[in-house]
Amino acid sequence: MFLKGKTALITGSTSGIGLAYARSLAAEGANIMLNGFGDPSAIEAERSALETISSGGRALYSSADMTLPSAITALVQHCHAELGGPDILVANAGINHIAPVTSFPVEKWDQIIAINLTSPFLLMQACIPFMKQKNWGRVICTASAHSMVASPYKSAYVAAKHGLVGLVKTVALEMARDGITVNAISPGYVWTPLVENQIPDTMEVRGMTREQVVDELLVARHPTRELVKPEQVAALALFLCREEARQVTGSNYSMDGGWTAG
């Protein structure tokens, strides 16, 4: 349990990749600050389970809204007051919307940029001072294959993920002598609620059936013909927290079944 005594704040961690991150880090002894939305009883069950697998670590939950700067600041302060740290920040919360650029709702653009790009910036701004006090920290951002390539009808999401990788590289350089690494993980399609929720809009805008969307747009993007599993993404994040990854910073790791290789 090499993370015993450390605290991880993970946004968007009540399901999908975020919850996989939480389980993986807790299994190595980390305290966990969960964040996100969902059924309260299901979230409480997951929170309790995290404390069990961490063998003495604590797990708390916050429903802080990642579109509100004041809520983000309050989340970090609450985490610090109750659990210490944050020593590890995993900026994972993300949303998407499918529409042509000519009819893309401005309010959706603003919301996607706020959650996918501005919230990681604000989280880093609030968490890094605590990391600098200890001369140790790990910042991991969930980007996407769309941080390197584009797909039609996803203008806000693609723009946000490209920007996120630029942010990661910049902050990595700023923190290079402070014992703090800053990296991104760019999964391809992972079977999560975020991907599931895109299917109806994609069916409508492309005139496709559900089966066509899954087979021709999701699975087909991966030369391996397999979707990425949340646990695989979490395993890479866990490695980035290890001492062996101390010299890994400013990197954007692809985990997309070969999608962006061609």
Automatic annotation (TrEMBL):
Pfam families linked to this entry: adh_short_C2
Entries under PROSITE patterns matching the protein: ADH_SHORT
Coiled coil: none
Catalytic activity: a (3R)-hydroxyacyl-[ACP] + NADP(+) = a 3-oxoacyl-[ACP] + NADPH + H(+)
Database matches in InterPro entries: 3-OHbutyrate_DH, NAD(P)-bd_dom_sf, Sc_DH/Rdtase_CS, SDR, SDR_fam
Gene Ontology BP term (one): monocarboxylic acid metabolic process
One GO MF term: 3-oxoacyl-[acyl-carrier-protein] reductase (NADPH) activity
Keywords for this protein: NADP
Superkingdom as given in the UniProt entry: Eukaryota
Presence of keyword NADP: yes
EC number: 1.1.1.100
UniProt cross-references to NCBIfam families, sorted A to Z: PHB_DH, PRK12429.1
Family: Belongs to the short-chain dehydrogenases/reductases (SDR) family.
Protein name as annotated: 3-oxoacyl-[acyl-carrier-protein] reductase
The species this protein was found in: Pseudomassariella vexata
